[in-house]
Amino acid sequence: MNAGRVTAVARKEALQIRRDPRSLGLGLAIPVLLLVLFGYALTLDVDNVPTVVWDRDNSQTAKDFILNFSNSRYFDVYAYADTYRDIVRRIDRGEALIGMVIPKDFSLAIESGARTPVQFLLDGSDANTATIARGYVTSVVNRYNEGLRARPPRAGGVVNPLPVIFRPRPWFNPNFESRIFIIPGLMVVIIMIIAALLTSLTVAREWERGTMEQLISTPVTPGELIAGKFIPYFCIGLFDLLVAVVLAVAVFGVPVRGSVLLLLALSSLFLAGALMMGILISVEAMNQRLASQLAMLTTFLPAFLLSGFVYPIWNMPAVIQAVTYLIPARYFIVILRGIYLKGVGLRDLWTQTLFLFIFAAAVSLLAVRRFRKKVA
Q1: Which of 4, 133, 359, 361 is the most exposed place for a label (fewest CB within 10 A)?
Q2: CATH fold label, 49-150
């Protein structure tokens, strides 16, 4: 491979990018915009759950119980109902996710140590949100019960001891903030999509504009041509990667507990594979519209659905789990979350690194082999 010819092709591609502001904007502005928009808009946290209360007891004890929900950031007690029908109507309209019904004689039952059922009506149309909200309700009620058990018993009062004290200790994300979980995965999806889209148009553009014949007549080999087209986009992708890392830390507060150098090195390996995948698509398609459609089809859907970004792989059917082993984003998500959140090193990530290297080498070899210096 002649370095001079590779440099010449790279310079030509850089001039082409500079003369095409749309491609330059796609490469520089879109990744940052997507990261900011999705980083703020896409969240799995369930906060400020709209809650309506029907307090049939209307005692100070009942008000203290409700206060445990009002003071929690997970609930928004925005209205009080007078009838059961009012609660149902608010849930039907989507105004409330939870309806709380406190029975009569609630305070008398609490003071006597008797079991006191409190009804919670949950809108289960969104099963995931309802499940999370139910967990929040359980947590608040358990904390209230522990407070009751901690009080000294009155004369003649019966206080049941708490046999097991549940003290969880979450690691890596103690506050269960979804952005800490989402941002690294979002970086994977954005890099995969943008990198493949950028390079999927390179070779196809030459065929459509009729300049490929001129390149074919030169002594540039297929490997030199692909390397020259790869270098400018790798620089753009590396810039996007650096901006994404800075935004993740400075804007979204995602900590980098591992090595930054290892993060950049393995990210560059994934970026190289994604770029070469786009070039391979461009070589095969020879048409910009078809190439862009194939790039979206082969990057966005697999990276979003089958990489473990949103849906856990272990919860998928066995056949789909087998398919995920072919998705490079699966391995890169493990790498990013490991470096960002767990602070692990190459010793724990060598398997994922090996798969990324194999992917990058395979698509690079295929791109060179499939390109032919022939007009037809």
Answers
A1: 4
A2: abc type-2 transporter like fold (3.40.1710)
